[in-house]
Design goal:
Blueprint lengths: L1 E5 L3 H12 L3 E5 L3 H9 L4 E2 L11 E4 L3 H14 L4 E4 L5 H10 L2 H4 L2 E6 L20 E5 L6 H13 L3 E4 L2 H24 L6 H4 L4 H7 L6 H10 L1 H21 L6 H16 L14 E8 L4 H11 L6 E6 L5 E8 L4 H10 L8 H4 L4
Parallel strand pairs: 1-2, 1-4, 2-3, 4-5, 5-6, 7-8
Antiparallel strand pairs: 6-7, 9-11, 10-11
Helix pairs in contact: 3-4, 7-11, 11-12
């Protein structure tokens, strides 16, 4: 299949890398000659002017910034009259409405909106990865008028990247990403902004919780301004609900009558929402036991730890690592099925690993 990608930033270049690895013929185009050449040099495809079949692609993927996507889609539909045109923008309703105003109804049947739910806090082709879409949802927004052969092409392309295809109405998609992507970005940025003038000794106390909350705060302001503006109605609705709950917490912190109940309720409601987040591989959420191991910050230590866990024939369900302030020591949290927690702790202790306050020590087993 011949794929032409317009826009060679993070998503466009990553898509090119993924498809090229699957032996697709990929041609690249960007308004920046340097950007398209960089993507080509990284292996994302061939610059369009050097690709023999670039003038007759089967699929054209628009991976430009959101504020120019509609016009780029319209131009692609006119330039490539036989191709199916898609995009990777994170907002679908307003984009579809803009495209409708720019093209003929007959051409609109060749446009199928998409949104691969993948990204990084870094931008540009230099941050591209061939596995960026692996095991990630790839939303396709088609309707009953979409030709099935064209829809099949888009599904095949998406699945070739390792994504899991999901079909959604554009408005449902935009309501969903407001909650699971766009508002989290706003909140992460607002929390991180509170650190701008904090004394260094305060910031030095930062733990994994702050890093988890603010990781995506390093995102590209230009791109996110366009995303937030494009999905403003849905994002504003969620933020208004959030503001109501935040005001309740602020009032409760005055410590008047009923304040502790209000604070506890806010945390409990968060527990309820957290429990609805899908678990591994999109399965139902599962509660795991967490085993904490103190790990020296030396080369090869993590590899040894995971080998020792593997030798115990125990599967690691999740993993995260923090660093002890002022010490060359890592604090590793390994999540496992609860039934294997005791076995893991006994096994690791026997291999010399340090496990602070392990369950077996508390119970007097070791």
């Amino acid at each position: 299949m011949r794929i032409h990608i317009i826009g060679t930033g993070l998503l466009g270049a990553s898509l090119g890398l993924a498809l090229s690895a699957q032996k697709y013929q990929v041609s690249l185009e960007d308004t920046s000659p340097t950007a398209q050449q960089l993507a080509a040099d990284l292996g994302a495809g061939t610059v369009a002017s050097e690709a023999p079949d670039a003038e007759d692609p089967q699929i054209v993927v628009i991976a430009t910034p959101p504020d120019v996507a509609a016009h780029t889609i319209a131009t692609a539909l006119a330039t490539y009259p036989n191709a199916t045109v898609t995009d990777v923008a994170s907002v679908k309703t307003s984009l579809l409405e803009s495209v409708r105003e720019l093209v003929e109804r007959s051409d609109l049947d060749r446009y199928i909106g998409c949104h691969p739910m993948a990204g990084r806090e870094k931008s540009g082709a230099i941050a591209a990865r061939s596995d960026l879409f692996t095991a990630r949802p790839w939303v396709i927004c088609s309707d009953e008028d979409t030709p099935q052969d064209r829809l099949g092409e888009i599904v095949a392309m998406a699945e070739a990247t390792g994504s899991s295809v999901i079909h959604l109405d554009p408005r449902i998609h935009d309501a969903a990403v407001a909650k699971v992507s766009h508002v989290p970005q706003v909140i992460a940025s607002l929390v991180a902004s509170q650190l701008r003038h904090a004394p260094l000794e305060e910031v030095a106390l930062a733990g994994q919780g702050l890093r988890d909350v603010t990781r995506i705060a390093a995102s590209d302001p230009r791109l996110w301004t366009q995303i937030l503006a494009g999905n403003s109605e849905e994002i504003r609705s969620v933020l208004l609900d959030l503001r109501t709950e935040l005001d309740e917490v602020i009032t409760a912190l005055e410590l008047g009558p009923g304040s502790t109940g209000a604070l506890a309720r806010a945390i409990a409601l968060g527990n309820e929402g957290h429990e609805r987040i899908p678990g591994k591989h999109g399965q139902a959420p599962t509660k795991y036991a967490v085993v904490t191991i103190l790990v020296p910050d030396t080369p090869g230590t993590l590899a040894t730890l995971f080998k020792d866990i593997g030798d115990l024939n125990i599967n690691v369900e999740d993993f995260r690592m923090d660093h002890a302030p002022g010490q060359k020591l890592g604090i590793v949290d390994v999540s496992v099925v609860p039934a294997t927690q005791q076995e893991l702790e006994i096994g690791l202790l026997s291999k010399g690993w340090q496990i602070p306050e392990s369950a077996i020590e508390k119970e007097g087993i070791a």
